[in-house]
Amino acid sequence: MANQHSLRRDVGPFALMFTGLGSIIGSGWLFGAWNAAKLAGPGAIWAWVLGAVIILSIALTYAELGAMFPESGGMVRYGHYSHGSLVGFIAAWANWIAIVSVIPVEAEASVQYMAGWKWGWAQDLYHAMPGKHGELSPLGLGIAAVLVIVYFMLNYWSVKLFARSNSLITIIKLIIPAATGIALIASGFHSENLAVGANGGSHANDFAAILTAVATAGIVFSFNGFQSPVNLAGEARNPGRSIPFAIIGAIALATVVYVLLQIAYLGAVPPDLLAQAGWKGINFSSPFAELAVLVNLNWLAILLYADAFVSPSGTGMTYTATTARMIYGMERNGTLPSIFGRIDPKSGVPRPAMWLNLVVSFLFLFFFRGWDSLAAVISVATIISYLTGPVSVMTLRRTAPELHRPFRLAGLPIIAAIAFIMSAELLYWAKWPLTGEIILLMVVALPVYFYYQAKHGWKDFASHLKGAWWLVAYLVTLAVVSKIGSAKFGGLGVIPYGWDLAMVAVIGLVYFLWGVKSGWRTPSIEAERMEAGQHPDDLQIPPDEDEVERATGHR
Over pLDDT 70: what percentage of the chain? Predict the structure, then answer.
């Protein structure tokens, strides 16, 4: 594992937090408040708060894992350590799809917002299609492709260049959304808007609509950036302190900004626009910028059109860095060619992995030519990528209690159980047929896993399969429940609304307990522990003397 030692620990706690915040505040802030209001009306405020609480519970489980295994691409490694290669592969595949597709979607968001200029050649960048997802024109796709290349080049040269430029961009990204919320509220807040429902008429909080907004309006999509500090843990100084600080700080700051923006949006929309069809009747292509023009804040509109490049581009740049580390981690899992585990000795960057992600980003641009269509793919993959963290961290507490834990989460059994149950709920709230599409997405990738399993031999396959049955059964069970669940979540209505939520919670608890019991001490952990005996700065795990003797031939 010599390549791991070439990674440079140049990223401090604040830079790491800015990495997470830079990932969270991207295109989601430009479109999220508008999308959430269309689904839940004023209840969208509660959707952001609920989404933040759910994501924080999930993120805290990854904080302990990230500090315990400060590795690049760590998010794709933990399931492999706790349950074997099959769980590790499924989790890694879902996580990688969810993250790598963010690179092109941020570029598309910038171009789509740019189309809102409504003059000259900019008008031809994006074509709205009533009743369908809009698409970027060939010119728009070309500009988006150039932006992806810019993200690539900024990360290609060094970790320090990435961290320094990202911190500056993130500060700008934090100031402009906050200033937007304050300016819109100051321009005139129409409190009567809070009494208008999503479909018009009087507003009453629709709990099902709020839950669906959490899963599909861009809220989960926005908060998914908490993964970036975990995936960059291998480059973090003092990961035991830096990772929890970065994750909690980024989610907390982003929540304040998003709630402020949602309140500002709800109060700033002219009441006469709501009189026609409620919040669902408001169709903006560049939501906050067009709203700023309506309330005569032309200076803000200009600023927002400019920031439509900065915010998504900062996120795209961050994800270009983290996805390269994920590919690096998947290679170390033994499910990708060894070339993707190579680290450039001068820059400390896994460059072959970056090239792979660049190609995949272009493929996503070609097949999903609008922000809406690609954001849906991300949401589907993101939800399943959350499943293994809570189970893995509890399993390792049981199977590997002696591992050094720089950050030990208090109340972990309760927090992890809640995190897994809420992940199950998120998957259900996403509505059928998205749940079915998740299963298909996993099946498509399995031939890659079986190819590498055959290459490495089938000796331990029974153990890996035993460690994965809970996840396989869980996905099938959730798909069936989603199909026959209440109509509010796209099902056939066999299970009444209310009972379906309770059933999913029980299913989540049962599979969480099964998953924790299914874990085993994988050979990967032993290998890491022996490696740690030779390189204690890379993994803070106290080595066992007998294992060191077997690994090195002497005491």
Answer: 84
Residue type, 122: A
State which of 124-128, 327-331, 491-495, 532-536 shows the largest mean pLDDT.
Answer: 491-495
Amino acid at position 135, single letter: E
DSSP state of 130: T
3-state helix/strand/coil string of 467-507: CCHHHHHHHHHHHHHHHHCCHHHCCCCCCCCCHHHHHHHHH
Instruction: At 134, list the tokens.
Output: 């809009």
Residues in CB range of 296: below 8 A, 6 or more apart: 187
Residues 189 and 269 sit within 8 Å (Cβ to Cβ):
no
Cα 239 from Cα 66, distance rounded (Å): 8
Please tell me whether residue 126 adopts helix, strand or coil conformation: strand
How many CA atoms are closer than 13 Å to the CA of 102, on its beta-carbon side?
39
- Distance between CA atoms of residues 340 and 334, nearest Å: 11
CB 29 within 8 A of CB 175: no
SS3 136: strand
At 73 the pLDDT is: 62
Tokens found for residue 187: 């321009």
Mean pLDDT comparison of 416-430, 459-473, 511-525, highest-scoring range: 416-430
Q: What's the DSSP call for residue 202?
A: B
Model-level pTM? 0.81
Cα separation, 166 vs 324, whole angstroms:
16
b/e 228-259 (16+ beta carbons within 10 angstroms → b): bbbbbbbbbeebbebbbbbbbbbbebbbebbb
3-class DSSP state of 370? coil
Q: How sure is the predictor about 165, in pLDDT bands with cuts at 50, 70 and 90? A: low
Helix (H) or strand (E) holding 127: strand 126-127
**For residue 416, pLDDT beyond 80:** yes
- When pLDDT is averaged across residues 445-472 and rounded to a whole number, the result is 85
What tokens were used for 225? 């950036």
Residues in the chain: 555
Q: Which residue has the tokens 């072959």?
A: 352
Q: Is 135 helix (H, G, I), strand (E, B) or coil?
A: strand
Segment 241-252 mean pLDDT = 88
CA distance 203 to 192: 10
| Distance separating alpha carbons of residues 401 and 82, to the nearest angstrom | 12
Burial of 444 (0-12, 13-18, 19+ CB in 10 A): exposed
